[in-house]
Amino acid sequence: xxxxxxxxxxxxxxxxxxxxxxxxxxxELVAGMxxxxxxxxxxxxELSKELGGETHEAFYKATIDDITLYIxxxxxxxxxxxxxxxxxxxxxxxxxxxxxEVLKKASQxxxxxxxxxTLAIEPNEAKVFMRLxx
Amino acid sequence: MDINExxxxxxxxxxxxxxxxNAKRVGKxxxxxxxxxxxxxxxxxxxxxxxxxxIRGYILLCDGEVYAIAFQEPPALGERALALxxxxxxxxxxxxxxxxxxxxxxxxxxLKEEVKQMGEKVGRVLAGLSEKKKAKKExxxxxxxxxxxxxxxxxxxxxxxEIQVEVPPLEVLELIDLITLSDELAYYxxxxxxxxxxxxxxxxxxxxxxxxNIREPVGIEELVRALYEAAKKSEATTLIEVNLPGGAKYxxxxxxxxxxxxxxxxxxxxxDVITYIEAQGKxxxxxxxxxxxxxxxxxxxxxxxxxxxxxxxxxxxxxxISLNVRAxxxxxxxxxx
Lengths: 134, 337
What we know:
The structure holds 2 protein chains of 2 kinds. Chain A is an alpha+beta fold.
């Protein structure tokens, strides 16, 4: 869990925007990797059908006569890993977008500077604590 | 939601990730659009995601209809992309995507109303709690503003909420969107009587911005007014680099322009504030806001503070930004960052 505390709405909103920018850049990279790996995976599936062999956690192995072929990482496993990160990224992006919206609307109503904000963020859940300054 | 809005499913990165993570490859070949529509009719719980390698794009077809479409070469989205597809067969790779995933990807295109309302409700509750504390501060400010009334520009005292103008931070757009917007902006500038051509978007502190070249000399006031009108018509809400024939370069931000004018209106000033940005290197910039009339001296500082607040919220891509307000013979300066 990521925990961050801010002394004003504007600081919290800036942090959320920065996080979103970073996540969106990573998401672009992951989307590109997914587009490529889909093609590699399908060619790999065709190859493995021809050669037989077995897919292990991190590599593919096939034996042809007395030669054993290893392909590392197995594109199938790599695809799973990338897809898992893609799911995390899309959840995180949405969570940060929602938090950003809540913070902006709340800051419009309350103004800036009278509140301490703590964000506790996980890929599928977020908690936003707002405490009025005394 | 029409096809143009739905097609942003390929532009919004989290929507695109949802589609790609749920896509299952089912084949490849050369098909016409009509044949692909027919193929998608046979699917009950899935849609067809079609990847067009040659033009680097995607079509999403559900129940025999094109649900969304976008490609990069040439950049086009929605109806415009559809018009460019034609009737010839295209080389494609075909994937199936569950309809649930399409729905989820679409949800990512906009925030639910409940989320927006939640923020408003939270803000109202907190505002109520801190009301007592604020009351004293407001009393003082009202005294100052009451004095300003004698100058006859504002007819009633604007409250703290009334002078707070909200602008969104600068949006990071994809290259494909910027290219499309550049073309539209240049087109509408021509309609406004400014000879302009779109150029390849340029990178500014890792953010791409629209680039427009002006072919004939034009005054800054006329140019800014035309840029604002063209931006409204093309729905451009991002930063625009404008290059003039003599080598001068300005930046124009339609949202900042709108925000500054909104601030002035809330203080009773109806004259348009000509707002543009002059960059001094990659880290430093000056926002110039100019108007013919003077600012009422008693609350000029409050206007400057509101303008600085708007500029700060916009998060422009320069490290040091100063504000230069030229009002009649007055020159007022503020620091944004």
